[in-house]
Amino acid sequence: MATAADSKLTFTRLPHPAPVPEDAREQALADPGFGTVFSDHMVVIDWDEGTGWHDARIGPREPLALDPATAVLHYAQEIFEGLKAYRLADGSMALFRPEENARRFNQSARRLAMPELPEETFIAACLELVKTDRDWFPSLAGGSLYLRPFMFASEPFLGVRPAKQYKFLVIASPAGNYFKSGAPAVSIWVSSDYTRAAPGGTGAAKCGGNYAASLVPQAEAIERGHDQVVFLDAAEHKWIEELGGMNLFFVMDDGTIITPPLGGTILPGITRNSLITLAREEGLTIREERYSIDQWRDDAASGRLLETFACGTAAVVTAVGRVASRDGEFTIGSGGPGQLTTKLREKLVGIQRGTVEDTHGWVQRVD
Ligand code: PLP
Ligand code: COI
What we know:
This protein is an alpha+beta fold. The chain contains 8 helices and 18 strands. The chain folds into 2 domains: about 1-175, D-amino Acid Aminotransferase, Chain A, domain 1, CATH 3.30.470; about 185-350, Alpha-Beta Barrel (D-amino Acid Aminotransferase, Chain A, domain 2). The protein has helices spanning about 20-30, 70-75, 100-110, 120-130, 210-225, 270-280, 295-300, 340-355, and strands spanning about 10-15, 40-50, 50-60, 80, 85, 95, 145-155, 165-175, 185-190, 230, 240-245, 245-250, 255-260, 285-290, 305-310, 315-325, 330, 365. About 25% of the residues lie in helices and about 30% in strands.
């Protein structure tokens, strides 16, 4: 597979001739929810086999014209990332660990037989968009500008092989709460019929196909009155893997925390990695090891398990209060956010927003 050209790309800037008027923008920013409001601009960079990455530009966000034979529409050769830009307490803007998203993007690219994008170009593209659409930060507390970098096979071709043309884009969406209810703890449904990823598959890659396959079990969870689906491993239907869009942590009464290991079937979450670091600094023992659904139920009943929380860029750190499966339901702790969930969430959010000291160099200022 071809790798990215080394040359540094410069962005052509095409300002929007008719951006959203200020009053309409302010209205959209008052309570944007998640994923429905979009900013004025987008970044586009093209790749083809002969030239590598070229034509980096930032211009008006607009529909894409695609040939009906475009490879991604047939074989789903597509990957994406999700990261947030924050307004810090002092009014400046920052990204959280964007180099980790850039690195994971290239891991996904390799798994999907796509060209890698130089990490510096990935980050530069995100910074360009945040600077251009700096007026699109939501006004509500806890709001952020969610960035969605993605790449797809743009070659019109129906043979099954890696495409020879790709497009990389970044769009931005002002974001509030990921969960509509805004409830302090979510309720999750354990899928017995469906799995998300198998060994040797694409579970560790952030590709659209993984999410397409999660929609039926996610819809089943919603129909049954829950917020999210939790997937078990594909081989034994026993080991807890992750939610449709979040990693999981289990807090025990002896101060240890368990989280499923990165064995290729779950996404290596950047929030997961950050929380492991923060928890270890608090003197807690984190065990990256397999944890079964039966053990989860038994530990919740015996009181050995104090808390469970889910984490990810979109959902930040969210307590799991209730778990349901075909075998019945159980509640975790008091059913609301536990002490450690709250503490770790506050620490992480504090670092992201500049109110807690960033001792790891995780926060990258935009200006
Ligand atoms: N697991 C899945 C399947 C996800 O989609 C996400 C979200 O990106 C995560 C975990 C959490 O990853 P991160 O913390 O990097 O956002
Ligand atoms: C994220 O947290 O960034 C995700 O990608 C999860 C979901 C919105 C797909």
